[in-house]
Amino acid sequence: MTECKVAVVTKFNAPLEVWKAPLPDIAVGGALARVEAATLCGTDAHRWQGHLTEGGGVDLPFIEPTTTPFVPGHETCSRLEETRGQLYDLMNEPLKVGERVIASYPHCGHCYYCVVTRQPTLCAKNLSFGHSAPGAMLGGCAEYHYYPPGGSFIRVPEEVSSPLAASAACALRTVMHGYEQLGALGSHESVLILGCGPLGLYSLAVAKDFGAKRTLVIGAPQARLKVAQQWGADAVLNLDEVSELKQRRQWVLDQTGGRGADVVFQCANSRALPEALQMTRPGGRLINIGVSGGPPIEFDPMHFFKQVRINSVVMAEARHFYQAIDFLATRRRNFHFDQLLSGQYTLDRTGEALKAMSEYREVKPVVLPALAN
Question: Contact, 145 vs 8, CB < 8 A?
Fold first, then answer.
């Protein structure tokens, strides 16, 4: 085989096309893998809508602009089909053709961020998936995925399905990165999660697993909040029913002894960050994961007297991918993770999946490498 089918965004906010793209040459240390499943997240929807067409510039060189045509999908579980040279997983165990894997993004390995600060997600040569030209084969909405040298492979155990493993390759690994930045979570601490999409639901699961005293979720629609309740959220608030910030803030105060939440995970979008700051108790901690484009955000400067520690999260490192897969494998009896997966789509229906995601009609849609009959 010299080519394969790929779903291609040719115009922003428009139906996708299915193209045939040539398979790339495999570099030493690289691999070509057959896609088992791809899942979509909010970033895929934002790229499809044309919200991320500007790069990060001098301050954020690792953020590349999205240009058409491109193949979406940066959450992918694949089965190794061809490698060049012996490859090893993150635990330095040799990999074999036929094994299922997810993979971290390649980075240069020798710049200031890779070597000195050990923050490879900030590497200017970080190669993220899901927004490259069809010939690069770096998107999951395709029959095959190419993995260039420089990333790390994580084996997928038998007990983790391919769609769930795919979701670990972005949503859950980013949450794991966020909890690492948070540090220890005390058994006396309350955790508030803004947003109940994949990021918010996984943040809830980890908070419960880590022993938070009380977990609160604000989000919409009701179907997603229902999953949060089934996963053990102590209280939920429907954003569609309580539109006024003042009422939402009072709800949080009522749930936390009048102080505000000890820990807040902002998993919605950039516009929610000022609200997240208001709902964090004085001296509390705020992890900002949900990021979207748009105009600058305004803050009340007096809120910075609250002495809140704010951490922002971009992508994740190889160990977070490993932690995500391990969490799915070992906590599956505590959480019905399959409830996070929603509709299944074939390659030629990828545009429908992206539209449904952008309209919050899906939680985590699955794209399978096939065409509709």
Answer: no
Domain co-membership, 78 together with 217: no
- The model's pTM: 0.95
Which residue(s) pair with 312 in the sheet? 288
pLDDT 10s digits, 119-154? 999 999 999 999 999 999 999 999 999 999 999 999
**Quick one: 308 and 347 in the same domain?**
no
Burial class (CB in 10 A: 0-12, 13-18, 19+), 290: buried
For tokens 């009959």, name the residue: 373
Q: Can you name the residues that pair with 56 across neighbouring β-strands?
A: 60
> Given this model, what pLDDT does residue 373 score?
62
CA-to-CA distance for 223 and 228, rounded, in angstroms? Answer: 9
Residue with tokens 């040279």: 85
Question: Which residues sit opposite 142 in a β-bridge?
Answer: 6
* Vertex 1 angle, CA 102 and 163, to 5°: 25
User: Radius of gyration of the chain from Cα atoms?
Assistant: 20
Verify cis geometry, omega within 30 degrees of 0, for the bond prior to 365: no
Whether residue 9 sits in one domain with residue 140: yes
pLDDT at 35 over 90: yes
Domain stop point among 267, 284, 312: 312
Q: Residue 373 domain-assigned?
A: no
What's 241's domain CATH number? 3.40.50.720
* CB-CB contact of 142 with 129 (8 Å): no
Task: Tell me the C-alpha distance between 113 and 158, whole Å.
Answer: 35
DSSP 156-201: --TTS-HHHHHHIIIIIHHHHHHHHHH----TT-EEEEE--SHHHH
Number of domains the chain contains: 2
Tell me: do 216 and 337 sit in the same domain.
Answer: no
